[in-house]
Amino acid sequence: xxxxxxxxxxxxxxxxxxxxxxxxxxxxxxxxxxxxxxxxxxxxxxxxxxxxxxxxxxxxxxxxxxxxxxxxxxxxxxxxxxxx
Length: 84
Hints:
rod-shaped, 4 helices, mainly alpha
């Protein structure tokens, strides 16, 4: 078991102490059980279970407009540069 030190706001400490007295547990036991509940509600990150995502390969296509200046003009005009 690991020993650690934490800071708890006074109102929360009073509530932890109350629960410990009501249940006849130590304060450490209340904190452990609370931590266990949080861990159950927030399972391990999805990325740990799934393989890393990779960028898909680029689409292999050619623009019908080959001239860079004409392409710029088409883009400025808001026209779509059609694919072959």
